[in-house]
Amino acid sequence: MIQIKSEREIGLMREAGRILAETRRMLEPFIRPGITTGELDRRAEQHIYESGATPSFKGYQGYPKSICTSINEVVVHGIPSGKRTLKNGDILSLDIGVTYKGYHADSAMTYPVGRVEPEIERLLDATLKSLYQGLEMAKPGNHVSDISHAIASFIKPYGYGVVEEFTGHGIGRELHEDPYVPNFGPPHQGPLLKPGMTLCIEPMVNLGTKEIDVLTDNWTTVTLDGKPSAHYEHMIVITETGYEILTALKKE
Ligand code: MF3
Ligand code: CO
Questions:
Q1: What's the pLDDT at 251?
Q2: Whole-angstrom Cα distance, residue 225 to residue 241?
Q3: The domain spanning residue 165 has which CATH number?
Q4: Going by CA atoms, what residue is nearest to atom 6 of ligand 1?
Q5: Residue nearest to atom 8 of ligand 1 (CA)
Q6: Which among 111, 168, 101, 180 has a CA at the least distance from the CA of 135?
Q7: Average per-residue pLDDT in the chain?
Q8: Residues of the chain above pLDDT 70, percent
Q9: Residue 212 three-state SS
Q10: Given the CA of residue 57, which atom of ligand 1 is nearest to it?
Q11: In a domain? residue 41
């Protein structure tokens, strides 16, 4: 069942989203060669607690850390480690979840570490643009899969692989709520979008094949061909006329 959030609930999710965006902004200057993903996790966790919130991912289905740090061929759910150091030319997907007064916020972005290859810059740029193409369709009267279709059609001419095993999702008191929002498929399918629905839209796009594999830690998800992968996610609320992003600072 898709929950329509009240103004009060949307207000709390706006707060959760702001704390998340501030956590991300705090981390950004640390994303450079030499830092470990374990240190990024530690800094994020501390900032989230100091903001009066809790990290949504920690303990979620046994997940051991506060954020996900997915490097290069890791698509999602990379586990931060004090032994994993960022290198020049890497890309890092930072996925952050925050709970504030019982409501979740969830958002991800991929960053170049130092200087990356032009073909990787192009992957990041196209994946971010595909998120905004999807968001353009997020308005009352459209169906959930109008978002899905917009994302996949934007990526198609690039020849990249759009990951199908992970999808966007509703969010609120639970990190994952109805409806699921795939990043592919035909338009005009699935539930109608209505004001007060809160959704995470999150395309994951691979430079090569769309096929993935999960490592034996049962979390780390990698591309089957070992080529890099990008991930951008925003949490939004459907408004009377379109959408509002809840996980961006005013300037983002
Ligand atoms: N943004 C991801 C998602 O929507 C992050 C989940 S990580 C987990 O599934 F550890 F919480 F599973
Ligand atoms: Co999500």
A1: 63
A2: 42
A3: 3.90.230.10
A4: 57
A5: 57
A6: 168
A7: 98
A8: 99
A9: strand
A10: 11
A11: yes
Residues, the chain, total?
A: 252
Contact indicator for 222, 213 with CB cutoff of 8 Å: yes
Nearest ligand 1 atom to alpha carbon 95: 1
Q: What is the mean pLDDT of residues 99-127?
A: 98
Give the chain's domain count.
Answer: 1
* Residue 41 in contact with ligand 1 by CB distance below 6 A: no
| Strands 234-238 and 229-231, bridge-based pairing | unpaired
In-domain check, residue 1: no
User: Would you say residue 219 lies in a domain?
Assistant: yes
Distance CA 107, CA 124 (A): 16
Find residue 12's DSSP bridge partners. Answer: none
Q: Considering the domain boundaries, does residue 251 fall inside one? A: no
Task: Name the closest-CA residue to atom 7, ligand 1.
Answer: 57
252 has a pLDDT exceeding 60:
no
Mean pLDDT of all residues in 197-214: 98
Quick check: CB of 104 below 6 Å from ligand 1?
no
pLDDT at 166 over 60: yes
Query: pLDDT grade, residue 250 (50/70/90)?
Result: confident
Per DSSP (E only), the strands in the chain are 54-55, 67-71, 74-76, 91-100, 103-112, 161-162, 168-170, 177-181, 198-201, 204-206, 212-214, 221-223, 229-231, 234-238, 243-245
Give residue 89's domain range. Answer: 7-245
Q: Which residues of 56-87 are buried (b: 16+ CB within 10 A; e: fewer)?
A: bbbeeeebebbbbbbbbbbbbbbbbeeeeebe
